[in-house]
């Protein structure tokens, strides 16, 4: 163990109750960003963080982001940025978190009051925002406090970026990060984001990749208005018939994308990468439990995790404009819009993916010989992100996990996206590490969200330990 | 001209204003069967008909149908049955109509008060129920009155069956007709229904066929709950993927049903039948106008009308359980239900159609190699109906059209269904004729429903003339 860690860990344990008290205060502020009427609570939560940071001697700014787009009477909550330490001989680490939360109502089915931290006898601390993302954000503040009270020198300069709109599209944040990359964040040597979860419940992980997402609409229109299938069935080209023919040819039942050119864009699996999968704590039963069924495509862990993390997938989400209610209606819809998305991975480039999709959809439509009109377009795209898990930022985190939990962390990717990750990487040009505090059972975004006491307290140790190991890593780029 | 028709026609013309006044009174009663609060108006409308018929000397019964299924506090409106004439030497004709109407509100976009008959300078009489079906029902009453006032012997015994729930599923009527077929309706020699429309606006038609409809659901389920496509895309069999593969293989873009065995069940087109299509007043422009587009499958009238009337068609109506709202949502739906229906024609038998559909859907699903679960079933079916257009019932109507309008009527079928037609045919065992009064532009079920003065007054002549020719037709079955 690095010599400074022992007193730090001891102090974290001593302060555990006060750290939980800090979380209790944070959870009690219903900082729901999606709810206009709760906007003042979001602002109050930002103020709470600012006050905590200032009381520990950090230099804090509450930076306005202007009005909320589409709701010009409403101010966006400020971004709380802070600097703790300004020693040129130390590394500077930029950490990101968010202080807003998902909506929550007792009547949604919560077993306890969502905005009252409630701890059961197994140390599960229930409350909205406990794990997403107030616990991790407070972890950084706890780490500063424990260092001060233990009399241990803080090993790095810490830059904080805590936003209040993450659960509502991070309105305004991208431009802010891009602007501050060369200003407030310009000294950052690496970035650490604690806003995701372990793959399971026992073994910590470091996350080095996320898939991107290209979301498509396929619009097919023909008649001027909806038609009666008795009167017109058989006489007119039906948009829904054409759409089904196209949506039925995008992907096979085993998940293989049938659009020519897509699979060819995928980076080959290297031996080094393959070696990362073996040790990962994950079983097919974990998959079946989360699916609520045994309808997995693959029978083994490696192929399942690779399909989730490092290969593209295509999902058809639904059809707009058709008859979607229960029962029976004999309508020929005049215009239907099929929605599907492709999860993207290295080295897929969004414009090339779009090009392949458009060409395939148009070609397949042309083959039909329909007189209807087709329009296919990308609703939005977000790029995949993959960091080097060999970078010193990851090595340091890995040592910290070993120190705190006694195991090597799983090196994981995620199938979904956390867009701010890529924004930080592109804006700062630095390595970004995803260092989760909570576990897979924390139910972020669901009812009965919780953070285990162990994950919070050991997680606070982990964040501090990570900073110590980061400070010790050799000064080489990776 | 049959000698009795001239004074009858003359009297109809003389009484035209009073017949329009009768329609005005009927339209003023908002007999909306779908609206519980209007039930008393429906009952009042039935009473109005009963009173009119009684004042002309008909024997009238208001027959209760019990409580409304699912709304047991609510009485169904009575069926108004009547007999006018009981001369054993005359034929007995059973006529059907309905006295309830579709809902209508000025704010739906009506140009005039929907329950106030408003006549423009071109003789278009606007009002809810004007054409569907109060005008035709009053046509029979007008015919009786004009005969009486012209001093012309009524040529047949007339049985009336006027219901008050047609626009809400004809609740209770089927059982009533079946029971009365051997009672009140037992003398009927033929049936005439005036509740559909000319194919166009100028040329009258007689309708001898309707398609049936088998409505299917294809349910595919896998995961225990909806999944996030980022987290699970590529790892689990997606119900929507399977469903699209199946729905994409049911019918081609040109309307050809791809389910083996279906097309083989269709009765071949005879030369006699083919000859009926040539004279029909219908153009491709009529199709394009009603489609609101030029996306018709065929370029000629004959194939278009045959596709609409005498060949089966398959329409996919929509998907339940997927994402059907505007925008983007990255969901993998846990269970999706595709809805499609097949319009059936002679000689398709519903159980055999079901069998072919089930086998094909199951076979195609099996080919996918998916671990999801499939369930395919028929939600409801209704049989096609075709009468012989050579029957004396049709010959008589044809002569009446020639007499009143100076042209041979088009012999038409319809692509949709009027279930009561088949009920009458099966219950009475007699020929059923559909003899429309209104035209294709009457906008039944839409805003600004209307009946042209010409169609109403000449239509009253037509109904009376039909009865005269029916009385004269040779007594042979056809």
UniProtKB/TrEMBL annotation, chains A, B:
<feature type="binding site">
    <location>
        <position position="132"/>
    </location>
    <ligand>
        <name>Mn(2+) 1</name>
    </ligand>
</feature>
<feature type="domain" description="Peptidase M20 dimerisation">
    <location>
        <begin position="217"/>
        <end position="366"/>
    </location>
</feature>
<keyword id="KW-0482">Metalloprotease</keyword>
<protein>
    <recommendedName>
        <fullName>Peptidase M20 dimerisation domain-containing protein</fullName>
    </recommendedName>
</protein>
<feature type="binding site" description="in other chain">
    <location>
        <position position="343"/>
    </location>
    <ligand>
        <name>substrate</name>
    </ligand>
</feature>
<feature type="site" description="Important for catalytic activity">
    <location>
        <position position="228"/>
    </location>
</feature>
<feature type="binding site" description="in other chain">
    <location>
        <position position="445"/>
    </location>
    <ligand>
        <name>substrate</name>
    </ligand>
</feature>
<comment type="similarity">
    <text>Belongs to the peptidase M20A family.</text>
</comment>
<feature type="binding site">
    <location>
        <position position="195"/>
    </location>
    <ligand>
        <name>Mn(2+) 2</name>
    </ligand>
</feature>
<feature type="binding site">
    <location>
        <position position="228"/>
    </location>
    <ligand>
        <name>substrate</name>
    </ligand>
</feature>
<dbReference type="Pfam" id="PF01546">
    <property type="entry name" value="Peptidase_M20"/>
</dbReference>
<dbReference type="InterPro" id="IPR051458">
    <property type="entry name" value="Cyt/Met_Dipeptidase"/>
</dbReference>
<dbReference type="InterPro" id="IPR002933">
    <property type="entry name" value="Peptidase_M20"/>
</dbReference>
<dbReference type="Pfam" id="PF07687">
    <property type="entry name" value="M20_dimer"/>
</dbReference>
<dbReference type="GO" id="GO:0046872">
    <property type="term" value="F:metal ion binding"/>
</dbReference>
<feature type="binding site">
    <location>
        <position position="98"/>
    </location>
    <ligand>
        <name>Mn(2+) 2</name>
    </ligand>
</feature>
<feature type="binding site">
    <location>
        <position position="167"/>
    </location>
    <ligand>
        <name>Mn(2+) 1</name>
    </ligand>
</feature>
<keyword id="KW-0464">Manganese</keyword>
<feature type="active site" description="Proton acceptor">
    <location>
        <position position="166"/>
    </location>
</feature>
<dbReference type="InterPro" id="IPR011650">
    <property type="entry name" value="Peptidase_M20_dimer"/>
</dbReference>
<feature type="binding site">
    <location>
        <position position="330"/>
    </location>
    <ligand>
        <name>substrate</name>
    </ligand>
</feature>
<feature type="binding site" description="in other chain">
    <location>
        <position position="417"/>
    </location>
    <ligand>
        <name>substrate</name>
    </ligand>
</feature>
<feature type="active site">
    <location>
        <position position="100"/>
    </location>
</feature>
<dbReference type="GO" id="GO:0070573">
    <property type="term" value="F:metallodipeptidase activity"/>
</dbReference>
<keyword id="KW-0378">Hydrolase</keyword>
<feature type="binding site" description="in other chain">
    <location>
        <position position="195"/>
    </location>
    <ligand>
        <name>substrate</name>
    </ligand>
</feature>
<keyword id="KW-0479">Metal-binding</keyword>
<dbReference type="GO" id="GO:0006508">
    <property type="term" value="P:proteolysis"/>
</dbReference>
<keyword id="KW-0645">Protease</keyword>
<feature type="binding site">
    <location>
        <position position="132"/>
    </location>
    <ligand>
        <name>Mn(2+) 2</name>
    </ligand>
</feature>
<feature type="binding site">
    <location>
        <position position="445"/>
    </location>
    <ligand>
        <name>Mn(2+) 1</name>
    </ligand>
</feature>
<dbReference type="InterPro" id="IPR017153">
    <property type="entry name" value="CNDP/DUG1"/>
</dbReference>
């Amino acid at each position: 163990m690095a010599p400074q860690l022992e007193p730090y860990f001891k102090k974290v344990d001593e302060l555990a109750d006060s750290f939980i008290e800090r979380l209790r205060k944070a959870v009690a502020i219903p900082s729901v960003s999606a709810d206009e009427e709760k906007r003042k609570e979001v602002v109050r939560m930002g103020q709470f963080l600012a006050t905590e940071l200032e009381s520990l001697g950090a230099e804090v700014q509450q930076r306005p982001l202007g009005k909320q787009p589409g709701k010009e009477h409403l101010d966006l909550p400020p971004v709380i940025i802070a600097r703790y330490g300004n020693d040129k001989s130390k590394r500077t680490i930029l950490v990101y978190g968010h202080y807003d939360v998902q909506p929550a109502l007792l009547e949604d089915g919560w077993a306890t009051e969502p905005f009252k931290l409630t701890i059961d006898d197994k140390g599960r601390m229930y409350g909205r925002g406990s794990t997403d993302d107030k616990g991790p954000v407070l972890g950084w503040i706890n780490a500063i406090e424990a260092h001060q009270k233990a009399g241990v020198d803080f090993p790095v300069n810490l830059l904080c970026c805590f936003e209040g709109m993450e659960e509502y599209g991070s309105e305004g944040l991208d431009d802010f990060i891009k602007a501050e990359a060369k200003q407030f964040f310009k000294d950052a040597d690496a970035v650490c984001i604690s806003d995701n979860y372990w793959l399971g419940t026992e073994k910590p992980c470091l996350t080095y990749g996320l898939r991107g997402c290209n979301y498509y609409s396929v619009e097919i229109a023909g008649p001027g208005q909806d038609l009666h299938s008795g009167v017109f069935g058989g006489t007119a080209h039906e948009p829904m018939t054409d759409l089904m023919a196209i949506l039925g040819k995008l992907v096979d039942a085993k998940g293989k994308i049938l659009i020519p050119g897509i699979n060819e864009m995928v980076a080959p699996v290297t031996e080094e990468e393959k070696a990362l999968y073996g040790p990962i704590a994950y079983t097919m039963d974990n998959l079946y439990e989360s699916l609520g069924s045994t309808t997995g495509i693959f029978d083994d862990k490696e192929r399942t995790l690779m399909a989730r993390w490092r290969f593209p997938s295509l999902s058809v989400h639904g059809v707009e404009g058709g008859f979607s209610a229960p029962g029976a209606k004999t309508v020929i819809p005049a215009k239907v819009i099929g929605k599907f998305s492709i999860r993207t991975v290295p080295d897929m480039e969004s414009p090339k993916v779009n090009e392949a999709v458009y060409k395939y959809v148009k070609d397949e439509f042309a083959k039909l010989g329909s007189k209807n009109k087709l329009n296919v377009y990308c609703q939005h795209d977000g790029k995949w992100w993959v960091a080097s898990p060999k970078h010193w930022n990851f090595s340091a985190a890995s040592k910290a996990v070993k120190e705190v939990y006694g195991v090597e962390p799983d090196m994981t990717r995620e199938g979904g996206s956390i867009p701010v990750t890529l924004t930080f990487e592109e804006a700062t040009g630095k390595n970004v590490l995803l260092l989760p505090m909570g576990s897979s059972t924390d139910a972020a975004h669901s009812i009965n969200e919780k953070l285990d006491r162990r994950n919070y307290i050991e997680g606070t140790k982990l964040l501090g330990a990570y900073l110590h190991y980061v400070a010790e890593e050799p000064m080489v780029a990776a």
